[in-house]
Amino acid sequence: MPSDSINLCWVDGKMLPGNRAVVRADDSAFREGRGCLTTLRIAAGQPRFVDRHIERLQDGAKALRLGEVAEATIRRAIADLGEAALPDGEGVIRLQLSRDADGATHLVGVARRLGKDPSEWSAIIVALPHDGASLADGMKVSSRLTLSLAAEDARNAGVDEAVLLDASEYLIEGAYSNLFVVSRDGAVWTPPIASGAVAGIARSIVLERIFEIEQRDIAKPELLEAAELIAVNAVRGARPITRLNDRKVGEGRPGPWSARLADALATDG
Question: Count of alpha carbons within 13 Å of 84, Cβ hemisphere only?
Answer without folding.
Answer: 20
